[in-house]
Design brief:
heterodimer, A: 88 residues, alpha+beta, 27% strand, globular, B: TIM Barrel, 4 domains, eight-stranded mixed sheet, 27 helices
Chain lengths: 88, 590
């Protein structure tokens, strides 16, 4: 299993559209992806409804873990996505 | 129910304008959720019915999405991609199906239960914007339940004359159903600046006030209503005196807007003939239209970093050429000033290198410092700029300059790139101007030396203030120190302009200070040749410049320079501006 922590940097936090982009990216990988934040979660990283209920605002830290054959690639792609502020 | 006299309610002003009309009340529509038990033999059929409703809803959302994309642009339609993901959420579908199978309850009840649990967890979210996104999930739930029960979604079908829409809240599918010919304004009980009602209003260019507590309950369908999107006020059933007051205010506002729009094609020139290049700050090619619509004279700051930050890998040279050419072409014959990649500070992308591991990122590996150590990235971007220069007019500027070595190293690379392109047979404009951002006190101190080796200066006000006054504006305890009217800032601007003009180069300013109408006269008086600002602020700043003389602006600067504190300078400038431009300043207060 690979696990990282990454800070949410975009102004609006993990809102619906951002969560949507996250889900689409996560779904490209075979690995199981879990996401938690500050004691809440972990939710399925491929479920938009799970992600939005985390209510992750700007400055909060997301804990992303991936388990599976492509876990390293999955983590790398997701961290890049978060750090690029979901392309906003 | 509601009282019948005049009622004045306050909310949040999210889109300007004053409207006197009548209310079209949209009451929250609750779907009655059936809760029948399913015969164990018919469980498969019930699940299939759920699946069919999912498919039908998907088709509907797709249709709404394309309709909205046509009306309001792709950007607004993107929210429906997220709605589709909500609808197709594997976990919610699985949970609903197992609820049907295990509890033998109908699909409506099962789905409502699953989504209800998710909406409940929105209650503990504190962030107001994220909380508002519950409305999107409600929207998807409502659509699916309607399709399951066979009820029709009530649209704004009866909205057939000009009205102000009064609603508890608006959801994206509402915005797609509203006939925009009939909407003069929007007022809602809930919501903030980023609610769908606010977004809709701003994109339609109509007035809106949101977050008006108790509004729908107090409003009768057809009530006379005044909506003041400048001050954030809603008046229901106004008296004759109120109406008269607002009719006058409405006319003043319309006149002001008309004056500003008629200025669109005129230059920003003072009464005694000094022209200021008033250009726009933008960060993507699709903002070019807005800049032109607002009357910008070209683009004074094109932030290329957003192109890099909005993707997961480095854009190739050809991709950059395509993007830069597009923007240059759409602004021709005006000029676009491209700032080279300004990464670091508060902007990171993991694939680019600088990260938040630095203890002091604003004093760290950013701007030109980054580029000069990453020649691969720098060279590609410079090549792309020059190749795009054959499509129109552009200039190039480097961020975060502190010394002449940086300028020389960057210019050497520019020369190398030009030689390469010439050899490879690419066409490019040989007269592309190369300038620098002045955003450190160090650069101001040697502005005379720098001016000899560059074609222009552009003062980056935010960073210059941050570095000069040693203040992190994001730190709430000291953000009061972030003061554009500090005497040291005015002196640095003046010194930069004098050094530039002494060497016959032009000096501009880009950043928030440049776009604040309060400072417009002062900045003209300081001798700046160009102001590059948010497109939205251009009409207002242009009007101010066109109503003053260069002489009086210089007098204002001379007086300000005799004052010794930021407070005194601010007060002096503000009182002068209030006297000269009461209408603009009144709006600003509102």
């Amino acid at each position: 299993m690979t696990r990282v922590e990454v800070e949410i940097r975009n102004e609006l936090g993990l809102h619906l559209r951002a969560a949507g982009t996250f889900v689409r990216t996560a779904s490209r990988f075979e690995s199981q992806i879990r996401v938690a934040t500050e004691g809440i979660g972990a939710v399925d990283g491929k479920s938009i409804l799970g992600l939005v209920t985390l209510g992750t605002a700007q400055g909060a830290v997301l804990e992303i873990s991936a388990d599976g054959p492509d876990e390293a690639e999955a983590i790398r792609a997701l961290v890049e996505l978060v750090e690029s502020r979901f392309g906003e | 129910m509601a009282a019948s006299g005049e009622l004045r309610l306050r909310g949040v002003a999210v889109s300007p304008g004053i409207v006197i009309s009548k209310a079209y009340v949209r009451r929250p529509e609750e779907v009655v959720v059936p809760n029948f038990v399913v015969d164990p033999h018919k469980v498969d059929a019930e699940v299939a019915r759920f699946q069919a409703a999912l498919a039908q809803t998907r088709v509907e959302i797709d249709a709404t999405k394309s309709r909205l994309a046509e009306q309001m642009g792709d950007d607004h339609a993107k929210i429906f991609d997220a709605h589709l993901l909500v609808l197709e959420d594997t976990k919610a579908i699985e949970d609903t199906e197992s609820f049907i199978r295990e509890q033998l309850m109908c699909a409506e009840f099962a789905f409502n239960r699953v989504i209800g649990r998710i909406l409940d967890s929105f209650d503990r979210i504190n962030d107001p914007y994220l909380k508002e996104r519950g409305a999107d999930i409600q929207d998807v739930r409502r659509r699916l339940l309607h399709n399951l029960t066979g009820q029709e979604v009530k649209s704004f079908g009866s909205l057939n004359e000009e009205s102000v829409i009064v609603a508890h809240d608006l959801v994206p599918s509402d915005t797609a159903m509203i006939d925009r010919r009939f909407v003069l304004g929007v007022a809602t009980d809930l919501g903030g600046r980023t609610s769908h009602a606010a977004i809709l209003a701003r994109s339609y260019g109509i007035a809106a006030v949101v977050g008006v507590e108790g509004l729908t309950e107090a409003t009768h369908h057809g009530d006379p209503i005044v909506l003041d999107g400048n001050a954030g006020v809603v008046v229901l059933r106004p008296t004759a005196a109120t109406l008269q007051h607002y009719e006058a205010a409405r006319q003043r506002f319309v006149e002001l807007e008309r004056q500003m729009l008629t200025l669109k094609d005129f230059p920003a020139i003072t009464l005694d003939g000094r022209t200021i290049e008033l250009s726009a700050n933008i960060k993507s090619p699709d903002e070019a239209g807005l800049a032109l619509a607002k009357g910008a004279k070209g683009v004074g700051l094109y932030r290329t970093e957003y192109f890099f930050l909005s993707r997961g890998d480095l854009p190739s040279e050809d991709e950059q050429v395509a993007s830069y050419s597009q923007i240059v072409r759409s602004l021709a014959p005006e000029t676009v000033i491209f700032r080279t990649l300004d990464i670091g500070g508060d902007k990171f992308a993991s694939y680019l290198g600088p990260g938040k591991s630095e203890l002091n990122p604003f004093l760290g590996w950013r701007g030109i410092r980054f580029l000069l150590t990453r020649h691969d990235i720098f060279r590609t971007q410079l090549r792309a700029f020059f190749r795009a220069s054959s499509a129109g007019k552009l200039k190039i500027m480097f961020p975060m300059i502190t010394g002449l070595e940086e300028v020389r190293a960057a210019r050497a690379l520019v020369d190398k790139v030009r030689a390469e392109l010439a050899e490879e047979g690419y066409a490019y404009d040989p007269h592309v101007e190369v300038g620098i951002m002045i955003e450190t006190p160090g650069a101001v101190a040697i502005a005379d030396l720098l001016a000899r080796e560059v074609d222009f200066f552009s003062i980056g006000s935010n960073d210059l203030i941050q570095y000069t006054l040693a203040v992190d504006r994001g730190n709430a305890r000291i953000s009061y120190l972030f003061e554009p009217m500090h005497p040291s800032i005015l002196r640095l601007i003046r010194n930069t302009v004098e050094a530039g003009h002494a060497h016959d180069i032009w000096v501009g300013m880009c950043g928030e200070v440049a776009g604040d109408p309060l400072y417009s006269v002062l900045l003209v008086g300081l001798g700046l040749d160009e102001l590059s600002i948010s497109a939205y602020m251009i009409p207002e700043v242009k009007r101010i410049i066109r109503s003053i003389t260069y002489d009086e602006s210089k007098r204002l600067v001379r007086k300000a320079m005799t004052l010794s504190t930021a407070t005194e300078i601010r007060q002096h400038v503000a009182s002068m501006m209030h006297e000269r431009f009461p209408e603009l300043m009144a709006e600003e207060r509102a």
